[in-house]
Design brief:
- The structure holds two protein chains of two kinds.
- Chain A is α+β, with helices and mostly antiparallel strands.
- Helices cover about 50% and strands about 15% of the residues of chain A.
- Chain A is built from twelve helices and ten strands.
- A six-stranded mixed β-barrel of chain A has the order 2-3-8-5-7-6.
- In chain A, a hairpin with a 4-residue loop joins strand 2 and strand 3.
- Chain A is elongated and about 100 Å long.
- The two termini of chain A are about 25 Å apart.
- Chain B is built from seven helices and ten strands.
- Helix content of chain B is about 35%, strand content about 30%.
- In chain B, helix 3 packs across helix 4.
- In chain B, the strands form two sheets. A six-stranded mixed beta sheet of chain B has the order 6-7-8-3-9-10, sandwiched between helices. In chain B, strands 2-1-4-5 form a four-stranded antiparallel beta sheet, covered by helices on one side.
- The mean pLDDT of chain B is about 90.
- By secondary structure, chain B is α/β, with parallel strands linked by helices.
- The chains are: A alpha+beta, B alpha/beta.
- Chains A and B meet through helix 1, helix 9 and helix 12 of A and helix 2 and helix 3 of B.
């Protein structure tokens, strides 16, 4: 029997039981739609987050923090990580000299002191992280993002000078300014180590507002950052300890990143963690892979259920059509053709289900994206609460990769065929006389 | 004349639950090309079993069955399927596919044999014309009378130019007038087209129309006479 005739026979059998076939197909549709929707949404989310991270990201910088790395012992592998708070190791501002001497690949290293302060203008005040940095070094490190939109960033700033991110200047983006250049502000810090704890304060002046950076400002300057000269931070917070040291490399090769990371880790006896932005991006990528696999796994369960549905329906169909199979065999149909007819039915169901599922999944993904993206009813979720500044929702654009497309089609048809194998095999093994006698 | 079917000491035992039932207990039979054989006998005499064996729908328990000189016990499943394509089988209960029209039912037989679509259509229409159903081509079995359905079944059985036509109580399920028409058709196929025919029946009147009558009882052939030789 010709393959086209086999399929047309399969199709005629499906058409006979439209509702049943429709419901079976629906199972596949839901399974595939779930997989496609989850995967394309996750892919879109990953793209959005990666893009946000990459905005204003300097790929040639490393960030050194005190505390052992959670991840690889070399410190430079995929990992990097976050500091281990149990360690009493401290990183000091003059450690930059140690780092600078390590390798010719290191161009510059800059210490950062990060504290939470209360910043108070004449009208408003709130808690925020302040970062003490050397303005000159920072301009060198982040030449594209540590740039003033208004005011000027002085290479040798007065102690009172403060640089703020764009969001702190115009948080609502409607011209209602929060802090402007030349505003005088009160900086208040609670020294919790003093007995009794006491508030320190000084009056600063906004010297510059950074141009808009966008993204998360990972590691580098951000739109919600407040920057003061490091000398001021040292004396105001009364410390030589720094929160991080930012290291600028001569190039952003993975090999350079790895070797320098290792040198830095070794010189501090493994008491520091070195994070490269590339490593973070890689880590993010692998985290998303795991999430995708997990979600796809959950969605696959629904497809499994659909598969069992197919098997069930095929067995019922096999029993109902025993006599028909007897006729076909009496007319000279080979066992393998009977097998192909039954598998053909499952291929048709699987294929229709997968195609419809792809469409439905794509529509679902887009609906979800619109609902949660900027402009949608849930926009703004994840906006920064600490600053009281609306950050706006992220725009998620669902992505349907060719792998997902082909995979979903293949998976839909594959599951259908696998679950139809047993009923099809049983049908093919029926003996003509016995099948004909079946009532 | 060439020997089409040759059964030598053919035996068939069924298991009815746990009780073995000897349906055939040593049947010897020779059928030549162009023959018209009626197998007569009461129900349970083994005539349908014999027909199923000759139509290779079932396998004998013992003995030898040669079709066109080939021992069917030596054939693989696929070869048996190919052989079934060349055997026309007509059942008492028609066994048409209900969702198919008369033409589709006839075409199915051709499609299984791998005939192209254009050729199938032409041959199916010609066959249905031969059995007198030219104006019923697009009717489904439910829209046809018993006699018409049986004629579709005959057309289907003839589709692949079979070596012989096997009819299992072909008129058992239709009224006597239609039965006579069916028989006339079968006779015409035998005399005009030279189709070899083996027909199982329990109707003496029908058997009288055949060239040769084989009587069966209790799993064996009790008489085998050429019509006209009876006195």
């Amino acid at each position: 029997m010709r393959i086209r005739d086999v399929f047309s026979y399969s199709f005629s059998a499906i058409k006979l039981r439209k509702i049943r076939a429709g419901l079976t197909t629906l199972g596949v549709v839901i399974g595939i739609a779930a997989i496609v929707a989850l995967l394309s949404i996750t892919q879109g989310l990953q793209n959005t987050i990666t893009m946000q991270l990459e905005t204003g990201l300097a790929t040639d910088t490393l960030i050194v923090s005190p505390g052992r790395s959670f991840f690889s012992e070399g410190g430079a592998g995929i990992g990097g990580g976050f500091g281990d708070s149990d360690s009493d190791f401290k990183l000091f501002i003059n450690d930059t000299e140690t780092i600078n001497a390590l390798s010719p690949d290191i161009e510059l290293s800059a210490a950062r002191i990060q504290k939470t302060i209360y910043i108070q203008s004449s009208e408003r005040g709130f808690l925020i992280n302040v970062i003490g940095v050397d303005f000159a070094e920072y301009m060198d490190l982040y030449g594209s993002t540590f740039v003033a939109e208004s005011g000027t960033i002085n290479v040798n700033p007065e102690n009172s000078e403060i640089v703020i991110g764009k969001t702190l200047y115009d948080p609502w983006e409607n011209g209602t300014l929060l802090f402007n250049v030349n505003d005088e502000v009160e900086v208040i810090w609670t020294n919790a180590t003093a007995r009794p704890p006491k508030n320190e304060s000084y009056t600063g002046q906004i010297a510059a507002v950074l141009k808009e950076i966008g993204g998360f400002g990972f590691g580098g300057p951000s739109d919600i950052g407040v920057y003061i000269p490091i000398s001021q931070a040292q004396s105001f917070f009364d410390t030589d300890e720094c929160s991080q040291i930012v290291v600028k490399l001569a190039n952003s090769d993975q090999a350079t990143i790895d070797s320098v990371s290792e040198l830095i880790t070794d010189v501090f006896n493994g008491e520091v963690s070195v994070i490269s932005s590339t490593a973070v991006l890689n880590l993010l990528g692998s985290v998303f892979s795991i999430i995708q696999l997990f979600l796809a796994g959950i969605a696959a369960i629904s497809l499994l259920v659909a598969g069992i549905g197919i098997m069930n329906i095929m067995i019922v169909s096999l029993i109902e059509r025993t006599r028909e199979i007897g006729i076909l065999k009496a007319l000279g149909m080979k066992s393998r053709t009977v097998l192909m007819i039954f598998l053909g039915e499952s291929v048709i169901i699987g294929l229709i289900g997968a195609v419809l599922g792809l469409g439905l999944g794509w529509v679902l993904a887009n609906v979800v994206a619109v609902v949660f993206s900027g402009g949608g009813p849930f926009a703004g979720i994840g906006g920064s609460q600490a600053t009281g500044v609306e950050a706006g929702g992220m725009d998620i654009i669902p992505v349907l990769t060719p792998t997902v497309l082909v995979g979903a089609l293949g998976f839909g048809v594959g599951v259908s065929v696998i679950f139809a194998l047993y009923p099809a095999w049983r049908a093919s093994k029926l003996k003509p006389v016995e099948a004909l006698r079946y009532e | 004349m060439a020997m089409i079917v040759e059964a030598i000491d053919l035996k068939k035992t069924y298991m009815l639950g746990k009780i073995p039932v000897e349906a055939l207990r040593g049947v010897n039979l020779k059928v030549e090309s162009g023959d018209f054989l009626a197998v007569l006998g009461p129900s349970g005499s083994g005539k349908s079993t014999l027909l199923n064996l000759v139509g290779v729908l079932d396998k004998p328990t013992a003995g030898t069955l040669l079709i066109d000189g080939v021992d069917v016990s030596k054939l693989s499943d696929n070869q048996l399927s190919d052989l079934r394509c060349r055997v026309g089988f007509v059942f008492q209960f028609f066994n048409l596919i209900p969702r198919f029209t008369a033409r589709d039912n006839v075409e199915l037989s051709l499609s299984i044999a791998g005939v192209s679509k254009a050729e199938r259509k032409k041959r199916a229409e010609k066959l249905l014309e031969t059995v007198g159903l030219k104006d019923r081509i697009n009717h489904k079995p439910a829209e046809l009378s018993g006699g018409q359905q049986q004629r579709v079944a005959i057309a289907r059985a003839l589709a692949n130019n079979p070596r012989f036509l096997l009819l299992d109580e072909p008129t058992g399920n239709i009224d006597s007038r239609t039965a006579r028409e069916i028989l006339r058709l079968v006779k015409r196929l035998n005399t005009e087209k030279g189709v070899t025919i083996i027909m199982v029946t329990h109707d003496q009147h029908l058997a009288r129309e055949a060239k040769r009558v084989v009587q069966m009882f209790d799993g064996v052939i009790t008489s085998d006479v050429v019509n006209g030789e009876l006195t």
